Amino acid sequence: MELLLVKDVYLSINEKILRFINLKKLILTKCYFTERLIENLWSLVQYQLNELILTIDKDTFERKIRSGVIRCGQESNFIFMVKEFIRNLFSVKCQLTSLNLDISNDRSTVNIHECFLSSSNISSNLINHDFVTHCTSLRYLHIHLIHGFFLEHIIERLPSLEILSVQFQSTLVKEDCIYEPMIKKFSSSINWYDKIPKLKCFTLKSKIFGDNQLVYLKWIMNQVNYIEKLKISLDIKEITNQNCVIDGNFLHKYCMPDILTSLINFDFYIVSKCKILLSNDIDQIIDSFKSHYYFADGQWTNVKCFFDPIMSRQHISSTTIIRPRYFDGIM
């Protein structure tokens, strides 16, 4: 058996699964995380699997909270094991080549996203506390996060990464985060090319709340200016200029690297609240890509634009437009 799918059930992986000596790919979704599951799953990751698709279900934490295993302000052995497991997925002990990880159900009482920052005196037998180095085997990573700072920690540990896909559950950065000092901190460090030089494809999906998050987005785009394929999907919920339209100038200013060296394929889908767009306005938006040297040189001028008058939202895409279910009052 090379593939095992475990979905929509609550279980603990036991020794029987470990006996599948040919098991190379494991898909775990909506599975109840337990200490025993973590221990056995780590053995598979460390010695057997090539590919892991893992979703940490929200009921895992809900049940632990209700049972008293997780208490506010305290880090139990269970929380420590979860954080240690996630942290070590990006260590030298991990032999995966492909990882699809969803930690978007993280809770404030657990804080998986802080696994690289936290320290604990709780002992664990899951993993020996050796010096953790880079994971040199991982080539493909799709990760579903809540906030962006976790991303900065994992790219420090994946020098062989070729394909990176990131989806943010809510927004790029925590609401209480001070953006400029954070960007300056990262800007003063080694750039992404020196950390993940083999990266060829980068995909980002997120909501945007405020101009500062556009600044952070631009910083990320400049970090990946050496890649060959770029895909972004944005839902712009709030910016200072609510009458701003998304055109070629806006895209170049906030959603693209300043300098391109190797980019071949560029795909985007952006939704944003805006003023009323008439047919002539839409034509001007489309023409802005044809006249902008940045997009004309890359031959990325085949743009689709649509205005939803019910929601007052602009849809703009490099491929096709997903029209709302309700349009002009008709389903």
Describe this structure as you would to a colleague.
The longest helix is centred in the N-terminal third of the chain and has 13 residues, at 35-47. The chain has 11 helices and 11 strands. Helix 6 runs parallel beside helix 8 (211-223). It has one domain. An 11-stranded mixed sheet has the order 1-2-3-4-5-6-7-8-9-11-10. The protein has helices at residues 15-18, 35-47, 58-66, 77-88, 149-154, 179-187, 192-195, 211-223, 248-254, 279-291, 293-298; strands at residues 3-7, 25-31, 51-56, 98-102, 140-145, 163-168, 201-209, 229-238, 265-273, 304-308, 313-317. With 331 residues, it is an alpha/beta fold. The protein is globular and about 65 Å long.
Describe the secondary-structure layout.
Elements lengths: L2 E5 L7 H4 L6 E7 L3 H13 L3 E6 L1 H9 L10 H12 L9 E5 L37 E6 L3 H6 L8 E6 L10 H9 L4 H4 L5 E9 L1 H13 L5 E10 L9 H7 L10 E9 L5 H13 L1 H6 L5 E5 L4 E5 L14
Parallel strand pairs: 1-2, 2-3, 3-4, 4-5, 5-6, 6-7, 7-8, 8-9
Antiparallel strand pairs: 9-11, 10-11
Summarize the structure.
This protein has about 325 residues and is α/β, with parallel strands linked by helices. Helices cover about 30% and strands about 20% of the residues. Helix 6 (about 180-185) packs parallel to helix 8 (about 210-225).
Q: Which consecutive residue ranges, at least 5 long each, have pLDDT under 50?
A: 8-12, 119-132, 326-331
Class per helix and strand makeup: alpha/beta
Question: Shape, please?
Answer: globular
Number of domains: 1
**Mean residue pLDDT:** 80
Order of helices and strands: EHEHEHHEEHEHHEHEHEHHEE
Main sheet properties:
11 strands, mixed
Count of strand segments: 11
Count of alpha/pi helices? 11
As laid out across the biggest beta sheet, the strand order is 1-2-3-4-5-6-7-8-9-11-10
State the share of residues found in helices, binned by percent.
25-40%
Cα separation of the termini:
46 Å
> What is the alpha-carbon Rg in Å?
22 Å
In percent terms, what proportion of residues is strand? 15-25%
